[in-house]
# Entry
Amino acid sequence: MSLKIIIPTPLRKFAGNQDSVEVDAATVQEIIDQLEEKFPGFRSRICDEGGDLRRFINIYIDGEDVRFLDNLSTEVSDRAEVSIVPAIAGG
# Structure
């Protein structure tokens, strides 16, 4: 299924300066795989060396944090809203 992935501003330079990308995926892992295929090196910006999401990256499917679902195995339905959100810190 084709999904529209919104690329957050801090990650756009790693996605050809695009604000959104279409991918064909059924799970969060497949989304990441597709993004990596289209934009080599993108995975290393959102995943650590072990392949898990970096602590400061959150992915939401229809407003639900995938860490509280099935993490990268979370299934993504047709027309799901997928958001990649880098954490913002400051003080």
Observations:
- The mean pLDDT is 92.
- The longest helix spans residues 28-38.
